[in-house]
Amino acid sequence: MGSGILRNGARTGRWTAAAAAMAMAAVLAGCGSGGSDGKDSGGDGGGTLTAYVYGDDAVKVQQAAVDTFNKTSKVKVKLIKVPGTDYVNKLRSAMGSPNAPDIFFNWGGGSIKPYVDANQLVDLTSTVESDATLKDGFLPSIMKAGSLNGKIYGVPMRGMQPVILFYNKTLFAKYNLQPPATWDDLQKDITTFKSKGITPFALGGSDKWPELMWLEYLLDRIAGPEVFKKIQDGDTSGWGDPAVLKTAQTVKQLVDGGAFGKNFTSVDYGNGGAPTLFSKGKAAMHLMGSWEYSTQLGKAPDFAKNDLAWTPFPTVAGGVGDAADVVGNPTNYWSINAKTKHKDAAIAFLKTMAAPEYTKALVDNGDIPTSSNAGDLLNTSPNPEFATFQYNLVEKAPSFTLSWDQALEAKYASPLLTEISKLFAGQSTPEQFVDAMKAVK
Fold this sequence. Notes:
Number of domains: 2
Number of helices: 21
Radius of gyration: 22 Å
Strand content: 5-15%
Largest sheet: 6 strands, mixed
Shape: globular
CATH class of the largest domain: Alpha Beta
């Protein structure tokens, strides 16, 4: 989901992953692993591991981790900071060349499927299960979310980014309303705010990806995570599940009922359109990734400090999904190239992602780590209350569904965003949405 320059570049990178995978780029030379049997080599145990990382402001945390690791390891890690807008293209080109990185940053799910299909990644499943540091070091929902076909190919290395329902607590108090816990609550809030001339939900419809969040949560609340998991695993008949149609119908009811106002298709997120409507009190709520807090802190600090509040997505009447499930971007992951000459050293580096020192560095940078030891450190976060809410939300989640446009390969993700945009804009019916997605091959 996403475009535009957002918190730590993470949103930009996630969307670039879906869009840019269809493009070609020149090979990024000068880095690489070469072929080997996957065991550490070198007469004195020395050597170099190249690691591609998404080059944004947060990379300072990974650079510090590399510097610490290199002080004691004979095999040194060389961090290659690739600009965010070029990341996916350059990784894709490099992985098809003799100069492939040994370790690389990714989003799990569909972002690594081409490399898994080509047998280019180390299957870390048995390693994680047999190593206490890795097995117990991270929240289970995060490890599961980054897996593919039940196998683990990545270790978490950045902060979590769940999608959260943000609301203006000042407006809610003014009209004696509570944040919605159920669908009936939501309908009451919509009715009240509309009667007061306030748009119930800000929505950056021109960017398409903010609309996706609504389908992700609605399908989960209606049917649980299994329906999308079927689709993610390659069975496109999953789009024909009755719960998908019910989800699309619910979206249509929201749109027709004025939940997003009349002009949301011309409102963006990346350039600040939807966040500004929210911070100005023209919209009462905003379903958005956790980076919305940082966005508001930067654009409207008084609003962020005095009016901004947050709550989980509500339950849906008749739905069988667990109310504790979350959707969004679980985190980013390190994966290992199957051709690395220094597999053991690469795994040793990945284990440092569970170290208390690394967790503390993420917290100090404003991230909410996915490591199981993070809870005790969140009181040092820039906003301990918000940090603790996020961590508890994810820690208790039975399922954390990766954003659909990242979980799916680009050949499915691009049409998905187009069809969702048409559904929200009233250019297609719920039935046409379902038929269109079933037809994508």
